[in-house]
Amino acid sequence: xxxxxxxILALALALGMANLAxxxxxxxxxxxxxxxxxxxxxxxxxxxxYKTKTGxxxxxxxxxxxxSAQALSVTQGLQADVVTMNQPNDIDLxxxxxxxxxxxxxTRLPDASAPYTITMVFLVRKGNPKQIKDWNDLTRAGxxxxxxxxxxxxxxxxxxxAAWGYKKQQGATDSQVQDFExxxxxxVPVLDAGGRSATTTFTQRDIGDVxxxxxxxxxxxxxxxxxxxxxxxxxxxSLLAEPPVSIVDKRGTRKQAQAxxx
Length: 262
Fold this sequence. Notes:
Order of helices and strands: HEHEHEHEEHHEHEHEEEH
Number of helices: 9
Structural class: alpha/beta
Strand content: 15-25%
Number of strands: 10
Largest sheet: 6 strands, mixed
CATH topology of the largest domain: D-Maltodextrin-Binding Protein, domain 2
CATH superfamily of the largest domain: Periplasmic binding protein-like II
Number of domains: 2
Radius of gyration: 23 Å
């Protein structure tokens, strides 16, 4: 009889925990691939803050990859509650192809739904043996450049546009700029799909003399394990990227998603 009571008590507790788990809300943040550490910190802070304010337990899951590929995954059924991309056209895709966000999504949050800004910089090997200091140096013979693929990665697209802007500010025609871009990409030994894989190619596979990527990625590598092997170089001209975010109104989690982005 005692064993039977214990089993009934255990079953009741298990059912209670299952109901509690069912009542909890889980958000999926679909993001680009160099934001893992950023959102790991934000997620923990949000979960604790939301619990304090509402008494509700919320968990946040992350999905990371090349920004454009991530946007496509959401249109194809990935159940995002929040998207935190690195370029507006990836969220526009959700409005145009998936009708998952309204066309005016960028007006729903402050600052055109872009909570932070960032720029493109260079990461070189310690001592900068190839003396890479500006965009022109990426076209030199014997210099290997690691850039994410602009066709799949916002990281790569911003690198392409930053180089374009640099050359235009020197008075180059569009035709001359295109030749300049071709010269840079002629020196690219591998086009990784996303920014994080490009970083891995440069820092762990030891391919290339310079990595062109977001400043936060350079900061992470410069301060993390093996930091003594690399140093940051700021080119004379870059561009301001404004990575946008949006709620995806699909799973009935708007309240929690709004709080997360707020």
